[in-house]
Amino acid sequence: MEKKTPGKVGIKDVSQEAGVALSTVSHVLNGTAPISAEVRARVLDAARRLGYLAKRQQKGAIASLSTLYLAVPNANLPHVNTNLFSWTMLSGLTRECERRAIKLVPHASEGDLSAPEIIAGARACGADGIILVHDHTPRLIKGLAASGIATVLLNGDDPFMSIDTVVPSNRYGARLAAEWLLSRGHQRILHLTWHGRSTIRRRLDGVRDALLARDLSPDACEVLYADGYEPGHGEAALSRFIAARGGLGGNTAIFCAADNLAIGALNALRAAGISVPGEVSVIGFDGVTIGELTTPPLATVRVPLDHLAAAAVQTLENRLAVHAPDFPPVRIELACQLIIRESAREASSK
Predict the structure, then answer these.
(1) Tally of domains within the chain
(2) Quick one: 115 and 239 in the same domain?
(3) How far apart are CA 167 and CA 170, in angstroms?
(4) What gap in Å lies between CA 1 and CA 229, rounded to an integer?
(5) What CATH number does the domain containing 81 carry?
(6) Whole-structure pTM value
(7) Domain of residue 298, residue span
């Protein structure tokens, strides 16, 4: 069969590739008749290899999504290179909308986000849906939920589950890092964090989950709070800690709630003459590119930022084109990946 580009592939091509009738392909793709598992798998595999499934999904998204309204708190806008997490995620969202031919309209706000202002802006531009990033203020979420406009909260917690939510698995990702350290002989872990949103607190919960699973006391994880998430905040907090304790206080590993804090921790340790990973292991969280360039390269928990953006758009698509009006809000968590680099190793036997 002549090879075709995904844009020209049709149901006839899938039929020929899978070696089944056109009607069989139609029944498999539309779920209109019982088909054997073997034939169904063969049809879906052929449609996937030819690019037909992606084509169908994209056409469906274009049919129900043409304009999205984006609301991001001013404090979380990526103005500087210290907010690479937001920059990377929003860049991924922009690329996903470009790929699906969706117009992305940013919300302009001078102060805190306001539900009436967001709703008015969304209606003014004829938006099909709203993507709210980071901000999970209860009053804001309740206002958006009551608006009748499909809304997805990206990287935030909605404890009442009144709107759809897409988040990384902060708790599970942190547990991965803590379990790796514990399994390599680290008995005391310093958790460097800040008084952030609940998504950040979930990372401390993950560390405590790992301790509990090993019947270890929560005291095996000491918590150090920085004034913020920037590298300078992490450096200052750890420098004060080292000065007050005359060292690391028996901690052989530092797990940081953000790569930014870990970068600051590396600076503080270097200034104090404490070797990494010789005397202490350091692991961050986020997986932004700058972690690969530190000395030593930073071990981290990588958040699937591009996939988060794509999942948020697809969740809106599902809400508009697939679910019935009374379908309950969903919460989607994407798994994080532990990336071990030179800043982390087994605990010293000394």
Answers:
(1) 3
(2) no
(3) 8
(4) 56
(5) 3.40.50.2300
(6) 0.80
(7) 170-303
Terminal alpha carbon distance of the chain: 67
Count the helices and strands in the chain (H runs, E runs): 12, 12
Whether residue 211 lies inside any domain: the answer is yes
Rg (CA), the chain: 24
Residue 232, class by beta-carbon neighbours within 10 Å (0-12 exposed, 13-18 middle, 19+ buried)? Answer: middle
In sequence order, the β-bridge partners of residue 165 are 153, 331
Looking at the DSSP assignment, which residues form a beta bridge with residue 255?
191, 283
Q: Tell me, yes or no, whether 3 lies in a domain.
A: no
Q: Which pLDDT score is estimated for 349? A: 64
Distance CA 316, CA 121 (A): 18
DSSP run (H or E) holding 48: helix 37-50
Pairing mode, if any, of strands 129-133 and 150-154? parallel
Q: Specify whether the CB–CB gap between 134 and 72 falls below 8 A.
A: yes
Taking the CA atoms of 58, 61, 62 and 63 in sequence, report the sign of the dihedral they define: positive
Cis peptide before 277 (omega within 30 of 0): yes
- pLDDT tens, position by position, 77-133: 544 445 677 888 888 899 988 887 889 999 977 778 899 999 999 999 999 999 999
Q: Render pLDDT for 271-325 as a digit per residue (tens, 0 to 9).
A: 999 999 999 999 999 987 676 788 999 999 999 988 999 999 999 988 887 777 7
Q: How far apart are CA 123 and CA 10, in angstroms?
A: 36
Q: Give a yes or no: residue 61 inside a domain.
A: no
